[in-house]
Amino acid sequence: MQIKTASVAAVSASVSLNIHKGKTKVLKFKAENSNPITLGGETLEDVESFTYLGSIIDEQGGSDADVKTRIGEARATFIQLQNIWDSKQLSTNIKVRIFNTNVKAVQLYGAETWRTTTTTIKKVQVFINSCLRKMLNTDWPDTISNSQLWKRTDQLPAEEEIRKRRCKWIGHTLRKSSNCVTRQALTWNPEGKQKSGKPKNTTSGNRSRHEKDE
């Protein structure tokens, strides 16, 4: 990793680009080598997680932290728009459209690359259902089933929506040139031995399952 970092710095410098040492962080994922990474004689900071393009990357390699943050930000947005959900002048159709573009878009940002689990899907779905019920003012005892709720608000189950988003993103990525970094990252098979136990869910694993389903 030290060699690659130095190489990137050298190539960047050749075209008058400099790497900002203070803004550059190092996150090691299952790395056996714990030696610090240096750049220009300065040691780069080791971190357990960082935010890149709005998504949280952590040393566990999962999506739990990102999903939790996304739900928190979506909840804050939903609360800010409370006057819209309480409005008697706006139709349910208008409220749902506002919800999709202002709340749901925040919650599912980056969902195409989430390492989804049953727990992850459940958390996402519980939040969406809660928002939709508040919009329709269907609190206990005037409850309706989830299927009725989704039908009245023209919503797909969270698992199906995330699956469709992922398939669309994968298709878009695989149509890119073979030397595209994004495509290479998607199809990359890292070397190394897998630890004992049940294999973790991965993006490539999700892709394989989607292809079988199709």
TrEMBL record:
<feature type="region of interest" description="Disordered">
    <location>
        <begin position="186"/>
        <end position="214"/>
    </location>
</feature>
<feature type="domain" description="DUF6451">
    <location>
        <begin position="77"/>
        <end position="109"/>
    </location>
</feature>
<protein>
    <submittedName>
        <fullName>DUF6451 domain-containing protein</fullName>
    </submittedName>
</protein>
<dbReference type="InterPro" id="IPR045609">
    <property type="entry name" value="DUF6451"/>
</dbReference>
<dbReference type="Pfam" id="PF20049">
    <property type="entry name" value="DUF6451"/>
</dbReference>
